[in-house]
Amino acid sequence: MTKIKVGILGATGAVGQRFVQLLADHPWFEIAALGASDRSAGMAYRERRWVLQPDMPAAVRDMRLVLGEPQSFAGCQVIFSATPNDVAERVEAEFAAAGYYVFTNAGPHRMDADVPLMITDVNPEHAALLPIQQAQRGWSGFIVANANCTATHLTSALKPLHDAFGLEKVFVVSMQAVSGAGYPGVSTMDISDNVIPYIGNEEPKLEEEPLKMLGRFDGQGVVFADFAVSAHCNRVATLDGHLECVSVALRTKATPEEAAEALRSYRSLPQALGLPSAPDPCIVVRDEPDRPQVRLDRMTGAGMTTVVGRIRRDPILDLKFVLLGHNTVRGAAGGSVLNAELLSKQGYIR
Ligand code: NAP
Description:
The chain is an alpha/beta fold. It has helices at residues 14-23, 85-97, 129-137, 149-165, 188-191, 202-213, 256-264, 269-273, 294-297, 329-345, and strands spanning 4-9, 29-36, 65-67, 78-81, 101-104, 142-145, 167-176, 216-217, 222-223, 228-235, 242-250, 283-285, 306-313, 319-325.
């Protein structure tokens, strides 16, 4: 099988390096171009600092970094974007207009009415927005967005509960790892011995994005889900993996055991299609009283799984639980790659 040639925008950053790692040996995709800022363009990829384990894949070490503009990515069909928001806002539409299939981790297009905000296990049917997007904008390419990393894992855990019991209210407190702020990110002096109870513009994303992803595609657009989310977001001194403490009010009452069963038994299209990056199961429920833990559980399912535990009654709402997910794997690069696998399998990528 001829592999699909892909390019990565922001290839030197925290998410960009995850893309490189996940795509280096991918069975369907082949890295053909790596983009970065004008500070890095022209350098060999190996000249930039690699922050992941294991070492930088051999196949990309000598590739030259290019500017993040469409003409530098000629020959690629798919663009995985991990650029800062201001750059994404400027360039992603240019790529889509030029015929590239763009899978973005950045924020600017997430809430556009004609852009699927997609978690492959949660709302694969929202891909039906793509022909609408292409017709409305006159693009031969398209943009598919990933959710915010914290919203990704929250929504993944809420989906089976919403399907089975209906959500009425969600209250969430996050403890988010430093890699969520990019590289080099938060300064050591700020985060050591500390919890920072503010992450700029994070709480609105957590309060809005799940409603779009759990919304219903009605043939024209997405009708947002009808429940309220209240979020507190904190930066903590862990490296990777966001932990979230969640309380929910349900429209149909359920016991902790019934909620656990709904989460445990949840399967979706990526598992049915056997997509290469699909975790199976996509949600793991732990029974131990002290799990999930960030260091022990973030690589569950190669970092693609959402781990839930401590499901119990909530004296104010109905149920409460803890969830954990890897922010740069499932919450960013891995989520994009899985979206691209699905759309490739379904014939959206030609
Ligand atoms: P990062 O570590 O700061 O990396 C930014 C990347 O963008 C670098 O490769 C950088 O290249 C490149 N870049 C910067 N300015 C540019 C310009 N003017 N033109 C082209 N490229 C430019 O950031 P990150 O954490 O990987 O985040 C990337 C995107 O993903 C952001 O939109 C972020 O909100 C989103 N996201 C991040 C996470 C996470 O957990 N970190 C999760 C979900 C979504 P140079 O090395 O040349 O500067």
